[in-house]
Amino acid sequence: MHGRIKPNATGTAMLIAIMVCVSSAGAGEALRESPRKAGNVTEHMAKLRAEIAALDAKARSDSPEFEAELREWEGKLAEPPEWTVHQKSKEAVPEKIGKILAIEPSERSPADAAALARYFRPQSKTVATAKRIAASKRAELAALRREAR
Predict the structure, then answer these.
(1) φ, ψ for residue 36 (rounded to 5)?
(2) Could you list the residue range(s) of the whole structural domain that residue 127 is in?
(3) Domains: count for the chain
(4) Virtual CA dihedral for 115, 91, 77, 14, nearest 10 degrees?
(5) Residue 2 falls inside a structural domain
(6) What are the backbone angles phi and psi of residue 147, rounded to the nearest 5°?
(7) What are phi and psi of 117, to 5 degrees?
(8) Is residue 3 part of a domain?
(9) What single-letter DSSP state applies at residue 91?
């Protein structure tokens, strides 16, 4: 019997991102199939620019999904490692980040919280999803620009 997938904030965010990609791809195909009018392409390009800007902002922001993912990552680092011959040890973090992680989250300075978020952001699935969708939309926008020439 297959195990059930437990819902969580990260999984929900990824599902939404996938749905956005699929619906965006469908919208692009519908546009290519319909007769192109200058206004329609211009409107679509403006919409893509707005979506890209929103995704870039999401990748840089501390969204609830990002915060949840960061707390989950912190929790994993706080757990004592289970040592076995075949298991990798916990990921190593720079000394500065280790010192920040040793401070209770409620007692961290805003600068410490920002440093921790900056360190974690490249590892975040939430950020990676937003960047991947933005890259797809940038490619679509570039294709529209080439066709409009």
Answers:
(1) -85, 130
(2) 9-148
(3) 1
(4) 80
(5) no
(6) -70, -30
(7) -65, -40
(8) no
(9) P
- Per-position pLDDT tens, the chain of length 149: 444 444 444 444 444 444 454 444 444 444 444 445 557 888 999 999 999 999 999 899 888 999 999 999 888 887 665 555 544 445 678 889 989 988 888 999 999 999 999 999 999 999 999 999 999 999 999 998 888 77
Q: Is residue 46 one of the residues assigned to a domain?
A: yes
The Cα–Cα gap between 57 and 80 comes to 35
Report d(CA 129, CA 149) in Å as an integer: 31
Name which of 127, 144, 147 is nearest 27 in CA terms: 144
Counting every residue written for the chain, the total comes to 149
Considering only CA atoms, which of 70, 57, 86 is closest in space to residue 9? Answer: 70
Residue type, 73: W
Single-letter amino acid, residue 18: I
* Three-state SS letters, 59-118: HHCCCHHHHHHHHHHHHHHHCCCCCCCCCCCCCCCCHHHHHHHHCCHHHCCHHHHHHHHH
Q: Is residue 4 part of a domain?
A: no
